[in-house]
Amino acid sequence: MASAPVAFGDEVEVKIDSLAYGGNGVGRLDGYVLFVRRGLPGDIVRARVTKVRRSHAEALAVEVVEPGADRVEAPCDHYPACGGCRFQDLAYDVQLSQKAAQVRDALVRLGRIAEPPLEEAIPAESQFHYRNKLEYSFAPGPVLGFHRAGRWDEVLDIRECWLTTQLGNDVRDAGRAWAREHRLEPYDQRAQTGFLRHLVVREGRNTGQALVVLVTAPGELPEESFVRAMTRFPEVKSVYWGVNDRPAEVTSVPSKLLWGEDAIEEELCGLRFRVRPNAFLQTNTAMAERLYELAVEYADLGGDETVYDLYCGTGAIGLVMARRALTVWGVEASEESVACAIENVELNGIGNAAFFAGEVGRSLEELRERSGPPDVVVVDPPRAGLSGKALRQVGRLEASRIVYVSCNPTTLAGNVKELTTELGYSLVRARPVDMFPHTPHVETVALLARPTVVT
User: Percentage of residues in the chain with pLDDT exceeding 70?
Assistant: First the structure.
């Protein structure tokens, strides 16, 4: 095989043709692929090579020699330094078409589906202010915001984030002001010293309720003053304190309720859902409703089906489907999410749904003995997709339809390949849903069916 035409540190001029999954621009030098960070489709850039492989190289755009026609002005003052958004300077219709192309490419190249039955991508209802949850990091200063793009050790002091609401921005600013007033030491990730680590703000966008979690290292918290700072906002109904005693930058830690209700509520598809600090709920409320409606459409329920809702989180998809099914059985590893799902059953007066805590790959045989075989299986796995064991277990259920809700087109494609080549299914429909404008992420809903029921 010929050697690469570039070396580490070289600077080359290249035209960007498209976006790869993950957000890097794709350019070519005599057929040799260059993945260029900060390169947008249509740009001609000067790029510095940062990594070289025989099949491709990675590079960073250091100058836009000629901007593409689809570049736009980014509204955020923190862009592009902030790592929260990648594409505020790319026209939204191009973002959407590139994401749809990435899903198609994954299904063709990795899923071995020559002509994927891909339907038109569903655009986001709002291109900005759409997130109902944000996690801010404290750093020496003190500052409170997001990590600088590509850096784990530097945090930008965010003054206005375009992905959250005015309430979200105001609560963050109040948290920063409180930290400065009390001269509390922010956590230093490099030195692993300090106290303040994260501020998490969750909103019920359709209910007007908010929940706040302060995550610290072990130490003494001036609880009353923090509660006062947060409850200046009437929307804040719950204030929690979580302690992280490990170096890892995580916010899903055991939390103590300092004030208010132990959960807030959100409304989706006409149902109420209780949300605690670590319970999973889609972070774009409006598009979560579109996503669930699409999953229901693909499930094509007639009222007499047994549905398995796997990786069910707080039970949202399963409970939306319960109104059209005979029974719904949910499985989820997170005990906190399952506790919320069980509460959500009671909250909505639903009598034909039950939820259990357990690993999907280990739970399906027992579930089948308890509930009987499923007619429809819904899977909404994490980014890594279905593991080999879980995938084979799902295939052995021999459900007539599988509705696969994916947050990663590459792992979706790998799972589709095994389901279609080894487990007797065909890919019938698939549709991208843009939950997260200005980021590389794309959701996809796919319908797989056993050939005997395809019409």
Answer: 99
